[in-house]
Structures are given as structure tokens and as C-alpha cells.
Amino acid sequence: MTVSVDIFVPSADDWLAANRWMDPAGGRASGMAVDAPAVAYQPQMALLGVLAEVDCQLILGDPMVPVTGLAYDPARAQLGEVFVALPGHDDPAALAEAYGNGVRAFVVGDRPGDCLQPGGDGVSLVRVDDTRRALALMSRHWFGFPEYALTVVALVRQAGGGLVEGPAGSADEADEAIAQSLWLIAETTGWNIGLFASRRPVGPGLADRSAAGWESPDLHRELSQMVSAGMDAVVLDLTGDDFARHRTDGMRFDLGVVTGASPDPDELLATRRVFTQSDLCLVNRDIACYRQLTRNVLCPIQTYGRSPGADHPTADAAALAAIRGLGLL
To answer: Is the pLDDT assigned to residue 282 strictly greater than 70?
Structure first.
């Protein structure tokens, strides 16, 4: 299929219309949410609205086509959803599978639009520079920016350790200390704290919101559910790989806590992104690559640990001081 490139430039009215939820029964809601009718309701938003924060180029189709959800796994894609072709699912076979499941709106990266071999009837095709980053920004918009209603703590550990279920004593000491500190804060403040992680939480103060093998839509869906459940704060269990995969792009963290980091240059570079997304960071001063990790960082940093020069001797003291410093306690 030959695709002619046509850059769509939306008008102010287009943006206004696209950024409102659409009622499938007819008409548009006056805001970003609508009251659910007695019958089953499937929310819809115009493709252009979902892409409101994404630098993109319309290659083919209608930018105002309604979409009913976000999909990144072609096998699980459903009718009406927009399929974002992440690396590993951006080949012709993956796009054809999503098309066969009813998808007609596609967000692709640098692969050509003629990947869509099966007819292409009614297809809307958008190209972006990075599909992982695009998916993260689309997810925030689709779920209504739920992180704004929560105090967000990003707990960044070295991959393979820390908040992962395993034999007794296998968890990293620094991670365990921070987890216990957050439990103490929950008890002290009465906060309901949700945990987005691949394990059960430490202590009864943390609600279990486990997720494994996740992508950004899973994160923002969980955050939205936490807001609805009355959670006050959330702890995100992250590694450098999560930053490298752009899973939290666009988010701001009230507090970043770095308990461990790999000296691998690529993972270290990815882990450093927590400093650009956080209002304040706590860093384990005992990390072997501490100097490389924190070099030329502009974010305010407080440290804890046994190493000379650490601001706080224990994770408990560091966490409480940071929460107070942010005016959250």
C-alpha cells in the first residue's frame, strides 16, 4: 500500500472537541468525564485528543476517529482501541494481528506505513519518534493524569534486587530500610499508601497494588483506581530499565528515592532520569557508583548511609526529613 504523507494541523476547535470524552449514544460530554448511564458505557476519546501531548504526524486517515482504549499487545487488542506499536510488536505481522482484532487506529515509529497489508480500510495511521514515550504520554492523558491527586514516591533500585519476592534475607538492606520507613510514615500520618510493584508490600500500612510485566497504561490505570479508592500516596517500585523504556515519561515525582544503581553506563544513564522528574531525591550514599550517578544533577539531593558525608545516618531519618521538607507531613 502506498502512503502519501499529509501533515494534519488541528484548529483550536479541533483540539477542544478532541480533548472531550465522547458519549457513544450521541453528543459530547461538556468536560473530561461523563456520568455513566444505566446501560454499559464504553468511554471514547478522539484519536487527536489521546495524542494531545505527543509530537506526531498523521500519515493516513481521520484524526478525529473515536478510540475506546489503548493497546500495546496485538493479541489482546480489541475493537475500537488505538494500537501503539512498541519495539517487538512493530512488525507487519503484529500490526496485521491487531488489525484482525478490530483495531483501525495505529501509532507507529520509524517503520513505514505499508506494514498494514490487510486492506487498510478505515485505517488511521500516526507516526511518532518514539512509541514507548508516546504510549506513556497517551496513558497519562487517557486516564486523566491521576498522579496529580496523589503524593508520588519513586523508589528506584538496582534491577534484580530490592522489592522483589525471594528467599529470606535476599532483599537489599537499603531497600528494606526505605520500605520500613514508608510504613512508619503511613502509620504516623494515617495515609493510605498504594504500592505499584512486582511483590506484596512490606507492612500493613501499604495496600497491595501489584503489577508484573507492565507498561505505562497499566501504571496509570492502577493510579486511577487508587485515586478512586481514596489512596493518599503511591510508591512506584522502579528500576533503571523502567526509565530506559520511558514507562514514567511525563510524570512528576514528589520524592525520588534511589537505593541502588548499576554501574553499567546505559542503566546508569537511564536511572539518572529520576533526578529530572523529582522535586527532591534521597540517595543511598553507599552506592558504589554514587559520584557518577549524581554528577551535575540539578535536583535537590539528600543522602543517607554509613559513608562519610551522608546527610542522614539512617533511611528512617532521611525519609522523614524529606517528607517534612516537602511540606507533606
So the answer is: yes
- Reference 105, options 54, 45, 47; nearest CA is 47
Mean per-residue pLDDT for 168-174? 44
Say if CB 234 and CB 263 are below 8 A apart: no
Per the CB < 8 A criterion, the answer to whether 132 and 247 are in contact is: yes
pLDDT for res 223: 93
pLDDT confidence band for 181 (50 / 70 / 90): low
Burial of 51 (0-12, 13-18, 19+ CB in 10 A): buried
Topology of domain 146-325 in CATH is UDP-N-acetylmuramoyl-L-alanine:D-glutamate ligase (3.40.1190)
Burial 247-272 (b: 16+ CB within 10 A, else e): bbbbbebbbbbbbbbbeeeebeebbb
CB-count exposure of residue 81 (10 Å: 0-12, 13-18, 19+): buried
Does the pTM exceed 0.90?
Answer: no
Q: Which helix (H) or strand (E) holds 274?
A: helix 273-277
With contact defined as beta carbons under 8 Å apart, do 252 and 228 qualify? no
For residue 260, the model assigns a pLDDT of 86
Distances, alpha carbon 90 to alpha carbons 67, 108, 117, 139, in Å: 20, 7, 13, 19
Ranges of CATH 3.40.1190.10 domains, the chain:
146-325
Mean pLDDT of the chain: 77
**Cα-Cα-Cα-Cα dihedral sign, residues 25, 26, 31, 35:** negative
287 to 8, 224, 266, 268, 283: CA distances (angstroms): 49, 34, 17, 12, 8
